[in-house]
Design goal:
This protein is α+β, with helices and mostly antiparallel strands and 97 residues long. It has one domain: Alpha-Beta Plaits. It is 14% helix and 23% strand. It has a two-stranded antiparallel sheet with strand order 1-6. It is globular, with a radius of gyration of 15 Å. Bound molecules: iron/sulfur cluster (2 copies). One iron/sulfur cluster (SF4) binds next to helix 1.
């Protein structure tokens, strides 16, 4: 059975993201990511795959242009290390039907 119900229509097809010039998501301090956070849960609980670990830079990369504004990231980080706010007015998620 389709994950999207009887009509098999993906509801996310209507979601559009207008990307602002600056990120609305910030890693507060890179040190907990390197020194303490073994499993880096932000890289898998974010449904939009905004966060990824760069071994080369020893830092979490934040692709804020993918954010669907679910609001989970500040709660999911075990070190309270993610600052998140809504994008500025007129930017971020909207729906085109
Ligand atoms: S969950 Fe928090 S502390 Fe862990 S890697 Fe992500 S931002 Fe860093
Ligand atoms: S608000 Fe949701 S979609 Fe956006 S970065 Fe945080 S967890 Fe990912």
């Amino acid at each position: 059975m389709s994950a999207f119900g009887k009509n098999k229509e993906n509801p996310l097809r209507y979601v559009k993201i207008k990307v602002a010039a600056e990120s609305h998501i910030k890693i507060k301090d890179k040190n907990p990511c390197i020194d303490k956070c073994e499993n880096k849960p932000c890289t898998y609980y974010c449904p939009a795959r905004v966060f990824s670990w760069s071994g080369e830079k020893q830092a979490i990369k934040v692709d804020y242009s993918r954010c669907i504004e679910c609001g989970a990231c500040p709660w999911g980080c075990p070190y309270d290390n993610i600052y998140w706010e809504f994008p500025p007015g007129g930017y971020g998620v909207h729906y085109e039907i």
